[in-house]
Design goal:
This protein is an alpha/beta fold and about 280 residues long. It has a single domain (about 1-5, about 25-280), classed as L-arginine/glycine Amidinotransferase, Chain A (5-stranded Propeller), CATH 3.75.10.10. It is built from eight helices and 15 strands. The protein has a three-stranded mixed sheet, with helices on one face. It has a three-stranded mixed sheet with strand order 3-4-5, covered by helices on one side. It has a three-stranded mixed sheet with strand order 6-7-8, with helices on both faces. Helix 7 links the parallel strand 13 (about 220-225) and strand 14 (about 240-245). The longest helix has 17 residues, at about 30-45. It is globular and about 45 Å long. Bound molecules: arginine. Arginine binds near residues 60, 121, 169 and 255.
């Protein structure tokens, strides 16, 4: 089950990442079509899609990956770094509450520790392990707390390139032992950690990373990305995945693509390979 939010009020109204320029507006009609294109492809796989009502004045609310981190029926709701997105927090909170999720709060920031956390944008399960990006948008102190709150192993990885400011812009788990990634977005330590933990890695080249190749939605063996990721698609086909491209360039203008426009509601940990074991969690 996925959460999406129609782009009725989507636009480039501020600049909080290097992709955004208020001088390069999004084409509203095209954004609507592109969003619908992704929605239709995902719906055709049979996945259930819930919709969040769009809110005027919150142009980035479409990026539901940043709502929070869902784990079973628990959710850690995001606390955005930039004031421009903080207005989304009560909207997401209210929606999770109305759907019966148990909202789990972080402890207030300790001295010197930040308390920002941008949800599934920065926290992705590969198998049982939560990979957690920090520095640009989320603080490592939050990731430590997640480990103890959820009782899962967390591997914090530092993001070093401002263009890949969320983990889901440079890393995408495909299966418990397999992921797509863009190594230059990480420091040496992060690269070593990922290589040590995940035996099968598909490396994306710079041109395709810039097309948000890593920002893919994975539904079973189906992988959905923006256009312009043909090398990745070849590699996926060679590993018996079924890649599909759909134009999402209007959202790239905001620094987002396919994965950012979705949130897994059956728990980010319950990727396809575990669905059947996960029903009662
Ligand atoms: N404009 C949004 C921001 O900078 C884009 C968020 C993309 N979301 C993601 N999960 N990568 O916050």
């Amino acid at each position: 089950m996925l959460l999406m939010c129609p782009p009725d009020y989507f636009g480039i109204e501020y600049e909080i990442n290097p992709w955004m320029s208020v001088a390069v507006a999004a084409d509203h009609a095209l954004a609507q079509d592109q969003w619908r294109g992704l929605y239709d492809l995902l719906a055709a796989t049979g996945v259930d899609i819930q919709l969040l009502s769009p809110t005027e004045g919150l142009p980035d609310l479409v990026f539901t990956a940043n709502a929070g981190l869902v784990f079973g029926r628990k959710v850690l709701v995001s606390r955005f770094r930039h004031p421009q997105r903080q207005g989304e927090e009560p909207v997401f909170r209210e929606w999770f509450t109305s759907q019966g999720f148990e909202i789990v709060d972080f402890a207030p920031a300790s001295v010197g520790g930040g308390s920002d956390f941008e949800g599934a944008g920065d926290a992705l399960f590969c198998g049982d392990t939560l990979f957690a990006g920090y520095r640009m948008r989320s603080d490592a102190t939050c990731h430590q707390q997640i480990g103890s709150i959820l009782g899962v192993r967390v591997i914090p990885v530092e993001l070093v390139d401002p263009r890949y400011y969320h983990l889901d812009t440079c890393f995408c788990p495909l299966a418990e032992d397999e992921a797509i990634w863009y190594p230059p977005a990480f420091d040496d330590y992060g690269r070593r950690a990922i290589r040590a933990m995940i035996p099968k890695l598909i490396e994306v080249e710079r041109k395709e990373a810039e097309q948000f190749a890593c920002n893919a939605v994975v539904v079973g063996r189906n992988v959905f990305t923006n256009v312009g990721c043909s090398q990745l698609h070849d590699q996926l086909r060679a590993r018996s995945y079924t890649p599909t491209e759909t134009p999402l360039n209007e959202f790239v203008k905001a620094g987002g693509s396919a994965k950012c426009l979705t949130l897994r509601l059956d728990g980010e940990e319950s990727a396809s390979w575990r669905c059947s074991h996960n029903a009662n969690r």
